[in-house]
Amino acid sequence: MTTTIQRRYFALLPAAGVGARMAANGPKQYLTVGGQPMLRHAVDAFCASPLVAHTYVVVSPDDGVIDSVLPPSLDSVTVLRVGGATRMDSVLNGLRALDGQLTADDMVMVHDAARPGLTPALIARLVDGVGDDPAGGLLALPVVDTMKRSAPGAEGSSVSAATVPRNGLWSAQTPQMFSYALLLRALGSAPDANAITDDASAVEMLGYAPRLIEGHPRNLKVTLPADIRIAEMYLANKED
Ligand SMILES: Nc1ccn([C@@H]2O[C@H](COP(=O)(O)OP(=O)(O)OP(=O)(O)O)[C@@H](O)[C@H]2O)c(=O)n1
Ligand SMILES: C[C@](O)(CO)[C@H](O)COP(=O)(O)O
User: Fold this and answer.
1) Atom of ligand 1 at shortest distance to CA of 86?
2) Which end of the chain, N or C, is surrounded by fewer C-beta atoms within 10 Å?
3) Mean pLDDT, rounded, for 47-51
4) In CATH, which superfamily holds the domain spanning 9-236?
5) What is the pLDDT of residue 237?
6) Which UniProt keywords apply (predicted)?
């Protein structure tokens, strides 16, 4: 008799950043975007998805805003006050805080709170695309521009040292989804938290090849001030 694993899916949103590149007067995840605090859009997308059992939001231990953005009445959402110095630290601390609540085979979707354009349809696309692949996967977009690498030490300069062949290049988005056990092991054994800018890179270091599932431009990461207007254009139309 074959036993099929009844997979459970959980969302984990790192939301403990300071938004330095946004240069706003507070963390960008709380900026009003599309009529509400930015992180609320992604939380609402996970809450609206029939696939997601529970959503966890990782904030800084001294965060004084989250309780006004996510009222305790949201019973499918739990705030974890374990944010760390880097995104990887925040994700790893969040995973460790769930020890005993998630099983090894539970699937965890790590999603930037700074990506408000996520929809339940994109969540379903990731889940369907990854299926039972033990390597997990992530939403990503094939690169369409020609990529240049600047000369060493000339960061931000107009000096181009080389053109990077774009065939096979993808721009990683989130959610990035892996089993709880694999993601915990990957981030827990990563060499340097600053070198790990996404969860998939830590999984790759263990020899896995996570699936690349085509995402959508609406799922952009709101990083710079100019990104807000783009995000709001997409948020005005949930069907993109
Ligand atoms: N120590 C950190 C750093 C980032 N993040 C989260 O990781 C996501 C992606 O990070 P990024 O876009 O870089 O956000 P910030 O780190 O806030 O931005 P910046 O790098 O400009 O300071 C965001 O939802 C951010 O809140 C986090 O939880 N903990
Ligand atoms: C995880 C990510 O969004 C994938 O593109 C990206 O690496 C986050 O980078 P950030 O500097 O922490 O925003």
Assistant:
1) 1
2) N
3) 97
4) Spore Coat Polysaccharide Biosynthesis Protein SpsA; Chain A (3.90.550.10)
5) 84
6) Isoprene biosynthesis, Nucleotidyltransferase, Transferase
* pLDDT value at residue 186: 98
Q: Is the CB of 29 under 6 A from ligand 1?
A: yes
Q: What percent of the chain has pLDDT above 90?
A: 84
Q: Kindly report the pTM of this predicted structure.
A: 0.96
Task: Considering every ligand atom shown, identify the ligand nearest to the alpha carbon of residue 220 and give its number.
Answer: 2
Residue 163 predicted with pLDDT over 80: yes
Cβ–ligand 1 distance for 78 under 6 Å, the answer no
- DSSP codes of every residue in the chain: -PPPP---EEEEEE-----TTTT-SS-GGGSEETTEEHHHHHHHHHHH-TTEEEEEEE--TT-SSHHHHS-TT-TTEEEE----SSHHHHHHHHHHHTBTTB-TT-EEEE--TT-TT--HHHHHHHHHHHTT-TT-EEEEEE--SPEEEEPTT-TTSS-EEEEEP-TT-EEEEEEEEEEHHHHHHHHHT-S-TTT--SHHHHHHTTT---EEEE--GGG----SHHHHHHHHHHHT-TT-
Which residue has its alpha carbon closest to ligand 2 atom 1? 198
Residues with a CB atom less than 6 Å from ligand 2: 87, 112, 172, 174, 197-198, 221, 223
Domain boundaries, the chain: 9-236
